[in-house]
Amino acid sequence: MRSGIGAFALAGITIVALGGGVFAQAPQPPRDPAPLAGANSFTERQARSRLIDAGFAMITGLSLGQDGVWRGRAMRNGTTDDVAMDFRGDVFVGAAARAPEAPSPAESPARGGTRP
Q1: 62-71 long-range contacts, Cβ below 8 Å, gap at least 24?
Q2: Which residues lie closer than 8 Å to 57 by C-beta, 6 or more apart?
Q3: Other CB atoms closer than 10 Å to residue 91's CB: what's the count?
Q4: CA 38, CA 44: separation in Å to the nearest integer?
Q5: Is 58 left (phi over 0), alpha (psi -120 to 50) or beta?
Q6: Which of 63, 67, 69, 108 is buried most deeply by CB count within 10 Å?
Q7: Cα distance between residue 73 and residue 81, in whole Å
Q8: pLDDT tens digits in sequence order for the chain, 116 residues long
Q9: Cα dihedral across residues 106, 110, 115, 116: positive or negative
Q10: Cβ contact 74:51 at 8 Å
């Protein structure tokens, strides 16, 4: 009987030790699919540092756009791609990092006029 209680206690301790860290975790807020425009207080040096911390190297053409997003090109895992960092410091790669295209003249109203 005593050995049964000892085995049961050992099993209980093992379960607690192995599963103790599996408590509910706070959910991460969803990340935006593209950089958010906003007043950016990061310097170019800080933006480069964030990109390097994200695993990028050979960062070129890094510039701050009028939308407050740092954009350029960089290499990671042997592939060069577009990169961007928004005012929150979030890093984006590929199509998500590209600047939105300006509307074509046919899509925008004429200066001083209105759309029909």
Answers
A1: 64/40, 65/99, 67/35, 67/37, 67/38, 67/99, 68/37, 68/38, 68/39, 68/40, 69/35, 69/36, 69/37, 69/40, 69/99, 70/40, 70/42, 70/44, 71/97, 71/98, 71/99
A2: 74, 75, 76
A3: 20
A4: 16
A5: left
A6: 69
A7: 6
A8: 555 555 554 454 444 444 555 556 666 556 678 899 999 899 999 999 999 999 999 999 999 999 999 999 999 999 999 999 999 999 999 999 998 887 666 655 555 545 55
A9: negative
A10: yes
Residues constituting the chain? 116
- Enter the tokens of residue 60: 């070129």
